[in-house]
Amino acid sequence: MHRANQTNMKIALIGYGKMGHMIEEIARSRGHEIVSIIDVDNQADFSSAAFRGADVAIEFTAPTAAYDNVKRCFEQGVKVVSGSTGWFSAHEEEMHRLCEQEGKTLFWASNFSVGVAIFQAVNRYLARLMNQFPQYGVRMSETHHIHKLDHPSGTAITLADELVKNIDRYDAWTLGTLTQPDGTQVIEHTPAANEVAIDSRREGEVPGIHSISYDSDADSITITHDAHSRRGFALGAVLAAEYTAQHTGLLSTRDLFPF
Predict the structure, then answer these.
(1) pTM value?
(2) Where would I find the beta strands (DSSP E) of 113-164?
(3) Arithmetic mean of pLDDT, 196-205
(4) Which of 6, 44, 68, 84 is buried most, with the most CB atoms less than 10 Å from its CB?
(5) Distance of CA 216 to CAs 85, 162, 201, 219, 238, Å?
């Protein structure tokens, strides 16, 4: 993957867990400078000169904190890349307004992995094909580590939205079966004929597995993305920051990976 023209970017990190550490490592390896690191114990640093001097802030926290973090970046005039899931859909209209009418810049994605971007393109293409073959029903599944708080995953929702958009016989996605870390299964909803069910599993330290299955009386077709580690997500977040530093508005992986 090519480097951005801006080889020495000033980056602020919001959230300093496993992803934050990995993003820091990759950003430094690509010639960037980490000028501010904000975690739960130093929230006052949002108003620091070091934070305001960042070209881009990269935010990976929790659904309950992400919205406020993004707004604080906007208040300080800092562009932001957010990879936190579970918050964006509730605030999407406001983010569009802030970015398109008030000059703010947010790059939000449910998943920054290059492989997932390719997988999403395959998903869209296959869905358009399957729109012609109503004998195939579709169901989705996602598996993540036990520390992930939201379900289904933001990536699963993005994939499901593309299915609904491209297959006329589906109008919505819905929760399916949740398998909890102890193996207990909860049937959260029995899907109607016009709904795509998303089954969720929380297990061990799994970085992320997403599968989309088409099933008919004659055969089945399944596509799967299986992340081996979080490193692909971290690299994608840094690539997104490099892109965001040179662009404005409400951005997504469809801008970064236009295929």
Answers:
(1) 0.81
(2) 137-144
(3) 97
(4) 84
(5) 33, 21, 24, 5, 41
